[in-house]
């Protein structure tokens, strides 16, 4: 699962201009024509350096979000109530790791090794979705994550699956299929609490209240402030604007929350029937940037746990390394 | 730190210094193997993705759970990515005229037209 | 046919082992040494928990036992009959891999021995779990042999892990004082002593390929007690954690 709100590199930085100077105009035109025709770009194709760079960044952030995203829900693996929930939660967290695997492979086809990506995650150089820097305090949090964060991720991933880069689209196709299981099991567990005892319902309402702002942050800053270049849209790297995706999410899921008699902690939240758009209070965007820059409640723990896992597994990986092997990147 | 997590699993770990620099060495995640999936007997094996593994045997072991833990599967192949030989993408033009060579295709032969013409001429 | 008490006793031992082993292995989900292995190990943890669930369902449906969720998530420590091997915390991946190797071979010989069991639900489970267990032992054997042949560190770690776990693993085969003979006579299964010897026959060739030293089994004392409800100090916290949410309200639906 993963949201929008990924941080593309400044599109008007110095680096970009220099790189673009080196792009052969003829090749660039052919590349852009291909995308305009709706064809996919494959790993061996010529591509602008900036396209490669932004895609690596995007897919890598997505991959990191999957393996970090396994941690908040993993919090409840040993405590899931009953066989069905226990098995579904383990299977779900397993899928997140599986998605990470698919996405790192897709990013590797662009020339950055899995190891380099992991190192950039561990050093804090590379980001992941902010939403995973919040704690899963109760069982109800798992149901909110499983239902709503996965729902939000689906909105984003379905959009990205129509992008221009073949390996990323193929990975997303499989991921979206599995996300439908995540959403369904999350919704099921969510409904169970919403329709359960007063204590269960209160637990769910409390979780919903805490998660609402991170969910509103999930698609990234409002369009009026975020700089997503037209180029990235034209190249089909970015497929939909943050506000568009947020609106689509609200439209599909707010009614599903309200129909269960639950409330959302935003008195302004409503659908404007004249425009068909949702209106809401602006979430605290300073908080969003504070968390991205490491100031969230769980940033430190998440990275510390990933570092532990890499350290703990190192002897297994090193023991089986074969330096004589001909190594290569994934083909497709 | 290690006793403050909400995850009891994490509280059992001996977490290291959060500021420690941990680096994974190039090649530590092993080599890449392409995975081919056969959905049912009689079907072709189809490419579904790849796994990182130290050797073909473990590649197969890993591929089974990463690519065949859901849905139907009867067999898998794995092959080192480095052993795949493919055309360059620029060579796509070699295939460009395929569709024009209709003498290789049943649709290129208008038998009924000829028969009807013959019948009408009688 | 054996008495329900004898069958119930055997099923609880098998199921509790599967549940606790699966639970321990699931603690690695998301934290494994490499993503591919994380996925594989997590699948096997799910399989174990699934086996436990299937066994508790047999208790519930065929032998008048309680609802599986209530039985698994609410029982006190004393009523658990798992072996000490599965209760031990995951000290490291070496320990977990070795326990997985020893446990899964034990499980394999057990279900294999039940193919012709006089208790029909065992026959069905034996068929049903066969493919899964084949994968589990394939995985365990491949890892063990490769790690041991790869160099000094892998070899030393796995040898240490074997020394740490072998007496605990032998404890899986603690015979029942009350029911062993009836279960054998009634052809429910061949009994713990026989399974123990089949298990040794099965793990030995793999250990040879890995060049590991199996201690003289006559000199080790199998760690018994779990089957009688005597447990390590690790079980109580594990059960408390496992039932934490369920026990917030055992009448509620989760």
TrEMBL record, chain A:
EC number: 1.14.13.149
Any one GO molecular function term: phenylacetyl-CoA 1,2-epoxidase activity
Keyword line: Oxidoreductase
InterPro entries referenced in this protein's UniProt entry, alphabetically: Aromatic_CoA_ox/epox, Ferritin-like, Ferritin-like_SF, PaaA, PaaA_PaaC
Any Pfam family: PaaA_PaaC
Protein name per UniProt: 1,2-phenylacetyl-CoA epoxidase subunit A
From TrEMBL, chain B:
Alphabetic keyword roster: Oxidoreductase
Position of the signal peptide: none
GO molecular function: phenylacetyl-CoA 1,2-epoxidase activity
A Pfam family of this chain: PaaB
Record has Oxidoreductase as a keyword: yes
EC number of the protein: 1.14.13.149
Domain of life according to the entry: Bacteria
InterPro entries: PaaB, PaaB_sf
Keyword flag Transcription regulation: no
Protein's recorded name: 1,2-phenylacetyl-CoA epoxidase subunit B
Organism expressing this protein natively: Chitinophaga qingshengii
Lineage, opening ranks: Bacteria, Pseudomonadati, Bacteroidota, Chitinophagia, Chitinophagales
From TrEMBL, chain C:
Transmembrane segments annotated in the record for this chain: none
Pfam families: PaaA_PaaC
InterPro entries listed in its UniProt record: Aromatic_CoA_ox/epox (IPR052703), Ferritin-like (IPR012347), Ferritin-like_SF (IPR009078), PaaA_PaaC (IPR007814), PaaC (IPR011882)
Protein name (record): Phenylacetate-CoA oxygenase subunit PaaC
Taxonomic source organism: Chitinophaga qingshengii
């Amino acid at each position: 699962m993963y949201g929008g709100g990924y941080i593309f590199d400044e599109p008007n930085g110095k680096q970009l201009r220099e790189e673009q100077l080196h792009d052969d105009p003829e090749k660039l035109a052919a590349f852009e024509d291909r995308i305009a025709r709706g064809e996919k770009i494959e790993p061996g194709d010529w591509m602008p350096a900036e396209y490669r760079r932004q895609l690596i960044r995007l897919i890598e952030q997505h991959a990191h979000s999957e393996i970090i995203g396994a941690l908040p829900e993993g919090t409840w693996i040993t405590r899931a109530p009953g066989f069905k929930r226990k098995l579904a939660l383990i299977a779900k967290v397993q899928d997140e790791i599986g998605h990470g695997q698919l996405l790192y492979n897709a990013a590797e086809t662009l020339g950055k090794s899995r190891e380099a990506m992991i190192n950039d995650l561990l050093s804090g150089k590379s980001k992941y979705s902010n939403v995973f820097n919040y704690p899963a305090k109760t069982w109800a949090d798992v149901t909110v994550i499983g239902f709503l964060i996965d729902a939000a991720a689906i909105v984003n991933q379905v959009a990205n699956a129509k992008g221009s880069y073949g390996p990323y689209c193929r990975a997303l196709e499989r991921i979206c299929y599995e996300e439908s299981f995540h959403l369904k099991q999350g919704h099921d567990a969510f409904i169970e609490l919403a329709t359960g005892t007063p204590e269960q319902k209160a637990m769910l309402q409390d979780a919903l209240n805490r998660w609402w702002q991170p969910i509103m942050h999930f698609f990234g800053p409002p369009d009026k402030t975020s700089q997503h270049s037209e180029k990235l849209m034209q190249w089909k790297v970015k497929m939909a604007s943050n506000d568009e995706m947020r609106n689509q999410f609200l439209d599909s899921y707010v009614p599903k929350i309200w129909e269960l008699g639950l409330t959302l902690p935003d008195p302004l939240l409503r659908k404007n029937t004249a425009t068909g758009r949702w209106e809401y209070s602006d979430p605290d965007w300073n908080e969003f940037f504070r968390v991205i820059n490491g100031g969230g409640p769980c940033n430190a723990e998440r990275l510390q746990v990933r570092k532990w896992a890499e350290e703990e597994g190192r002897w297994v990986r090193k023991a089986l390394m074969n330096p004589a092997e001909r190594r290569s990147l994934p083909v497709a | 730190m290690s006793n403050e997590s909400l995850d009891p699993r994490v509280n059992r770990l001996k977490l290291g210094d959060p500021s420690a620099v941990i680096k994974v060495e190039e090649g530590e995640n092993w080599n890449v193997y392409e995975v081919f999936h056969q959905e049912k007997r009689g079907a072709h094996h189809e490419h579904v993705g790849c796994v990182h593994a130290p050797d073909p045997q473990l590649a197969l072991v890993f591929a089974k759970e990463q690519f065949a833990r859901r849905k139907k599967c009867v067999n898998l192949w794995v092959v080192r990515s480095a052993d795949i030989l493919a055309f360059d993408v620029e060579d796509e033009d070699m295939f460009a005229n395929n569709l024009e060579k209709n003498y290789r295709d049943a649709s290129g032969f208008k038998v009924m037209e000829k028969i009807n013409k013959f019948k009408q001429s009688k | 046919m054996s008495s329900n008490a004898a069958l119930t006793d055997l099923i609880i031992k098998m199921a509790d082992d599967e549940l606790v082993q699966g639970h321990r292995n699931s603690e690695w989900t998301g934290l494994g040494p490499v993503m591919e292995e994380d996925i594989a190990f997590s699948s096997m943890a799910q399989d174990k928990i699934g086996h436990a669930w299937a066994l508790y369902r047999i208790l519930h449906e065929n032998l008048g036992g309680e609802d599986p969720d209530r039985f698994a998530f609410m029982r006190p420590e004393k009523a658990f009959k798992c072996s000490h091997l599965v209760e031990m915390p995951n000290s490291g991946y070496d320990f977990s891999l070795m326990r997985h190797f020893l446990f899964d071979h034990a499980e394999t010989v057990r279900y294999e021995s039940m193919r012709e069991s006089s208790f029909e639900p065992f026959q069905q489970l034996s068929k049903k779990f066969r493919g899964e267990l084949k994968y589990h032992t394939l995985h365990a054997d491949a890892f063990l042999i490769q790690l041991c042949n790869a160099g000094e560190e892998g070899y030393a770690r796995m040898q240490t892990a074997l020394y740490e776990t072998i007496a605990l693993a032998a404890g899986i085969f603690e015979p029942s004082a009350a029911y062993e003979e009836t279960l054998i006579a009634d052809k429910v299964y061949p009994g713990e002593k026989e399974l123990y010897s089949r298990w040794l026959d099965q793990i030995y060739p793999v250990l040879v390929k890995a060049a590991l030293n199996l201690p003289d089994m006559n000199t080790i004392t199998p760690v018994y007690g779990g089957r009688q409800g005597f447990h390590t100090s690790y079980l109580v916290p594990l059960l408390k954690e496992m039932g934490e949410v369920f026990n917030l309200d055992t009448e509620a639906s989760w």
